[in-house]
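Chapter review. Work through the record for LysR family transcriptional regulator before attempting the end-of-chapter questions.
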Amino acid sequence: MLNLQRVAMFVAVVESGSFTAAAASLGQTKAAVSFSLRQLEAELGVSLLLRTTRRLALTAAGDTFYRRSVTLLQDAQGMLDDVQRDHRGLTGELHITSTPEYGVQMIIPALTAFQRRHPDLRIRHVASTATDDLISGRFDVAIRLGRLADSTHRAALLDRFAILPVASPEWLNHHPVDSLSALAQADWIVHNRLTDPLRWQLSGPDGQRVPFEITRPVRFSADSAAALMAFALQGNGVALLPAWLVSEAIERGSLCHLLPDYAFPMQGIYAVYPDTRHVAEKVRGFIDFLRQRIALSAGQGS
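Structure tokens for LysR family transcriptional regulator:
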């Protein structure tokens, strides 16, 4: 029978990078952690860590065991949370990541309201433009925007949103855009995390598919929607941005929506979570709660 306490110690050593740091985080002595790891390796019959005077490194077996261990500990914590929920409501920690922009607009308000419903639940939010690995990052849920790459994780579609080509009035005064060819030759500010930010399939006025390719060399790029928007507001050219982010700027007149008869592909909002046998109630509960809030927000905005 696998000893979960030893498994947790092994995970702590891997994530902290040393026996000393792991012992401090666990409230154990370094000798106790080292002994536990030796016992675990003896039980498994394999070496999990390569120990040198300077650093620790995972063996191939250790890397596999680490990933499975994280999932195992998440499952165990999820089952514990669900059992306790029957008496105390949702408990434990909900660890979630999203982009900074969507986090501020939707996720953090939703997390605040969700926690007020479940006061024994602790919330940890990480704002990041990177597609952090859920397992190594120990995330319960990641909110992903755009188009999902192939993944071994589960994904729940929460909503879809439009992306709009926008530019400042000052830039348009010197660079009028009255056709697709003019848009293709404009000064573009592109998102450098997209796989192919220069080529798109648009929907034309009659619903026909229209290939579109940016032909002018790109002078500005960024890894976040907020940075793209800031570049556009500074009059550097055209940026392709979520409608939910730029709608107020368009209403104020600080940005203009270009060629509204042509539509870029709709993008998705997904809740991504580890594909484990036991999905914690706090994860299912928050995804359902967030979906309802998004639907209510969309209804109020229509």
